[in-house]
Amino acid sequence: MTYCVGLLLKSGLVFMSDTRTNAGIDNISTYRKMQSWCVPGERFITLMTAGNLATTQSVVSLLEERSKAESDRNPSIFEQPSMFRVAQLVGNTLREVIETQSGEGQRADATFSATMILGGQIAPGPMRLFLIYPEGNFIEASEDTPFLQIGETKYGRPILLRGFDPEMSFPEAIKLLLLSFDSTLKANLSVGLPFDLQVYEKDSHEIGYRNRIEPDDAYYHAVSDGWSEALREAFGRIPPYEMKDQDPPSGT
User: Fold this and answer.
1) Using CA of residue 123, residue 124, residue 127, residue 132, what is the dihedral sign?
2) Least C-beta-crowded within 10 Å: which of 48, 85, 121, 214?
3) pLDDT tens, 59-100?
């Protein structure tokens, strides 16, 4: 399993993914699940993946191969005129890989299943953020749904629902993501450090700030420890439940 999140802010996009993959408790590895492409001044694209590792690596490899030389750019993410068309291309590539590997046609619950988050901006269009399903179809983030998650989503979602604000700064957004990832990591051993981080500033069409947050990262531990302490203090300030005697049910 994995955990990846994409945030759609007024000022740009923020992506974070873990790097743990496992095929059992005795077979745990670290793989990058985030890939970015950029043509400075024209387009910026980031893709995060969750699911079967062979499937996701095949999709990324195909996208890479089809983008290297102009003679091979058919179809290529560098030739698509909009982020919507890139989402269609990635969805079709994902469906193609799953069908090829399964040998039985597309099945959403197949062993070779995968989901992806795609985000970026192609001039002169707006920033867009998509969640792509194994069937190749997709949904888009909006003002009503300003963030997207894939993988082990349930543990980190409550923090995002309570804390996300589209007006927040990049540093605040990164802090919120670290809290979401820390909650997920503590609840599920299939998610683990290091975390990959990518920030994109609206209309820049450039690869912005990016970093790998390692297990010994001082700020991450400050966030994790501070959040645990704040939760304990908040819990202590809430009045305890009063166990009052109840009237017996009527008719007894």
Assistant:
1) negative
2) 214
3) 999 999 988 866 666 789 999 999 999 999 999 999 999 999
